[in-house]
Amino acid sequence: MAVSREGIDLNLLKIFISVYQHRSITIAAEALGLTQPGVSGVLKRLQQQLGVQLFVRSGRGIAPTHQAQELARQVEPALNQIHNAIEGIEAFTPEHPRRFVVYTTEPIMLALLPRIEADNELGNVEIELHPTLSSEEKLINNLNQQQADLAIDFANYSAPSFFSEFLFDDQICIIARKRHPRIKQTINLEQFYAEKHVTLKMRREQAYLADYFTEESIGERKVAAECDSLVSQMTMISNSDCLAAVVRSLADQFAERLDLQVLDAPFTSIPVKYRLMAHNRMKASPANQWLRNKLKSYFIS
After folding, report:
1. Which tens digit of pLDDT belongs to each residue from 231-246?
2. pTM for this prediction
3. Between vectors from CA 82 to CA 78 and to CA 86, what angle results, nearest 5°?
4. Tens digit of each residue's pLDDT (9 = 90 or more) over 251-276
5. Which of 100, 103, 122, 188 sits a CA distance of 20 to 30 A from 146?
6. DSSP 284-297
7. Which GO molecular function annotation, any one, does this entry have (predicted)?
8. Contact, 212 vs 263, CB < 8 A?
9. ∠ at Cα 178 (175, 181), nearest 5°?
10. Whether the Cβ atoms of residue 167 and residue 115 lie closer than 8 Å to each other
């Protein structure tokens, strides 16, 4: 790349990275609070200074050229270091208004919200919870585009640009209503297969919760209903003689108000390991470090 002698404004590179991440001038402009013509003008100026074409038309959007990919590969880490250095000098404090967005699963969302609301040390910080996305690709893409600060998930992704930290372990249990005519305090495999079940199919893995977190291969059950929400599943159990497999943290949280029995599973459960995941650019960020430590504090018993 033949770079102009006048040097390149860092703001041009910041806008370039945003367009590169979003693969869209319109979306990048919205994210940066700029106009679409303004962003287009910046790209044109940067291309003139570098003497290369950075994007080409692709369908309804744009695609980066090889030169753009190489530029992003080298520039993005440097911009992240500059951002973290400035943020470190300014120092993060919850007294300054800040909104964090966290992608998470339903059990974690239900557990976190009351703890966040009860936290008197958040200052002017808001922690906003959003449901985790339906595919690993979408989740990684949105985190890469800074649509959220981090994600909490039980999957441990091996994406090279991301890191993860342990949050807490959960496990599978069986629930039944307290007035169940046959199930009383314990359950064995014969009883498990004899009863009807309300099952939960996880959106991303397209597998039932119990099958995903057990060492044994669970046989075919008598399915009375299938849900895509743990809350719906537990509510149906409280009003029927069916059984369901759920995570214990959620079962314990709602057992009393829904009049449920929480039973040890009659098979070998694999721990449900929840982890925090964020882009590498966030690892040294004081604000993101504060957020990760705050979320971990909610699960210290």
Report:
1. 899 999 999 999 999 9
2. 0.69
3. 170
4. 999 999 999 999 999 988 788 889 99
5. 122
6. T-HHHHHHHHHHHH
7. DNA-binding transcription factor activity
8. no
9. 100
10. no
